[in-house]
Design a protein that fits this description.
- By secondary structure, the protein is an alpha+beta fold.
- It starts with a helix and ends in a 5-residue tail after the last strand.
- Helices cover 28% and strands 31% of the residues.
- About 4% of the residues have low confidence.
- The protein folds into two domains: 77 residues, Winged helix-like DNA-binding domain superfamily/Winged helix DNA-binding domain (Arc Repressor Mutant, subunit A), CATH 1.10.10; 151 residues, 3-Layer(aba) Sandwich (Chorismate lyase), CATH 3.40.1410.
- Strand 1 and strand 2 form a beta hairpin.
- The longest helix is centred in the N-terminal third of the chain and has 14 residues.
Length: 241
């Protein structure tokens, strides 16, 4: 057990679950580790913090899901800071909030916001007619000053009057849809595939042409069943898992 962890204890007299206390102790410990450092074994953590193995396992599993730890059956559990786990894609929470919670420095750059006529592909995804007006929003999201993902979002113009007056809100798009327009985002459908970086994507993401990317299409629906967003995202393959 390292000195940093050995000085920490869990408080069993408060309402905060033990696994959550342990997870936060481990998160603090991880922030001072290097990529690839092994953390203490589950048994060592059980003995020191005087908790059950399921408690330790839940804390570690959640940190694995956040992309801060990685398990290896032979070697143990080690720190992994170079990748971003994709669990955040399964929720509607804001990108900034999720990455800050993982101890990272996120930022979003809006490249352009335009109105356009929906082509066949966009129209089919949004469930509207070809040629109907949509907003096209191009953004790049950065993590620790490195471009992580290039995203193009398409939104039906009829659902979002005066969107161009809210450009400053577009860094947190889902937050804007819910808190400015009052929509409740209900569910999403996603398609994920591996692609090679085109010249334009390579330039935006600062990778070599042909570098592996993860391409994700997302359709976000309201409770009414109406599709309010069609997103196309290209993630750097060397920074996502």
């Amino acid at each position: 057990m390292t000195d940093d962890l050995s000085a920490r204890q869990l408080n069993k007299d408060i309402a905060v679950p033990l696994y959550h206390q342990l997870k936060e102790h481990l998160r603090s410990y991880i922030s001072r580790c290097s990529d690839g450092d092994l953390i203490p074994t589950e048994l060592e953590l059980c003995r020191h913090f005087e908790v059950s193995r399921p408690t330790v396992r839940q804390a570690v599993t959640e940190l694995v899901s956040e992309g801060l730890l990685q398990r290896n059956k032979r070697q143990g559990t080690f720190v992994t800071k170079g990748k971003v786990h994709r669990d955040f894609l399964l929720t509607f929470e804001r990108f900034d909030y999720e990455m800050q919670a993982a101890g990272r420095r996120p930022a979003t750059h809006i490249r352009s916001v335009e109105t356009d006529s929906a082509n066949d592909r966009v129209a089919a995804a949004l469930g509207i007619g070809t040629g109907v007006q949509v907003y096209e929003i191009k953004r790049v999201r950065f993590l620790d000053d490195t471009p992580l993902v290039a995203v193009t979002n398409y939104l039906p113009a009829d659902l979002l009057p005066d969107l161009l007056k809210h450009k400053h809100e577009l860094q947190a798009l889902h937050h804007m849809l819910e808190h400015v327009y009052g929509y409740r985002l209900h569910r999403a459908r996603r398609k994920i595939e591996a692609v090679a970086a085109s010249e334009s994507r390579a330039w935006v993401l600062d990778v070599q042409v042909g570098a592996p990317l993860q391409y994700i299409e997302t359709q976000v629906y309201l409770e009414s069943g109406r599709c309010i967003e069609f997103a196309r995202a290209w993630y750097r393959g060397d920074m996502s898992s």
